[in-house]
């Protein structure tokens, strides 16, 4: 690796985030920089007493975190395949996805996200993580739309 700023990619286990990770890996190879696959999760566990954890121990925050960690690593392995470059780091962070990704963008060359293709109206109503990242990021943001496969699919040129 050349030591340039890394590429940060938001990974949530969806097909859109897998597409974004594949795009980021290609770009990381092209730039010879590391890629950080960043999974962000929020704990919604009610831990006011022992009852919720005794009734459904799989919902305990440490179990949920472990499930997210396994999913993140599975997706990274699938996307990286047999490739030896670029250097890839998987990281799981608890918090609000848009806030964590925007914070990490401060030291990144690019923030890469997948577009889930719901459409503009739905995105506005749902308060999309992608839209929030676009407004808060401190580096360029690449949104990889549905239909983009391999070699960046840059179109006619």
Q: Mind describing the biggest β-sheet?
A: 5 strands, parallel
Average residue pLDDT:
83
Number of strands: 5
Strand share of the residues? Answer: 15-25%
Shape: globular
Q: Please tally the helical runs, counting DSSP H or I stretches of 4 or more residues.
A: 6
End-to-end separation in angstroms reads 29 Å
Poorly predicted runs are none
Radius of gyration: 17 Å
Strand order of the largest sheet: 3-2-1-4-5
Q: Which oligomeric form is depicted?
A: single chain
Topology order in helix (H) and strand (E) letters = EHEHHEHEHHE
Helix content: 40-55%
Structural class: alpha/beta
What can you see in these coordinates?
The chain has 157 residues and is of the alpha/beta class. Helices cover 41% and strands 17% of the residues. It has 6 helices and 5 strands; from the N terminus they run E-H-E-H-H-E-H-E-H-H-E. It has helices spanning 15-31, 51-55, 61-80, 97-104, 120-126, 129-136; strands spanning 7-10, 35-41, 88-94, 110-114, 141-144. Strands 3-2-1-4-5 form a 5-stranded parallel beta sheet, with helices on both faces. Strand 1 (7-10), helix 1 and strand 2 form a beta-alpha-beta unit. Helix 4 packs parallel to helix 6. The two termini are 29 Å apart.
In short:
It is built from six helices and five strands. It is of the alpha/beta class and 157 residues long. The mean pLDDT is 83.
């Amino acid at each position: 690796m050349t030591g340039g700023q890394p590429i940060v990619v938001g990974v949530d286990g969806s097909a859109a985030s897998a597409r974004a990770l594949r795009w980021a890996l290609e770009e990381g190879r092209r730039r010879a920089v590391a890629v950080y696959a960043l999974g962000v999760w929020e704990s919604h566990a009610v831990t006011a007493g022992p009852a919720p954890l005794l009734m459904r121990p799989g919902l305990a925050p440490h179990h949920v975190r472990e499930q997210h960690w396994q999913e993140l690593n599975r997706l990274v392995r699938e996307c990286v395949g047999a490739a030896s470059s670029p250097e890839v780091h998987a990281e799981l962070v608890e918090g609000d996805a848009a806030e964590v990704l925007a914070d990490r963008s401060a030291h990144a060359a690019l923030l890469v996200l997948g577009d889930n293709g719901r459409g503009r109206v739905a995105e506005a109503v749902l308060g999309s993580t992608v839209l929030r990242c676009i407004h808060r990021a401190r580096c360029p943001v690449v949104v990889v739309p549905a239909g983009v496969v391999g070699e960046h699919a840059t179109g006619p040129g």
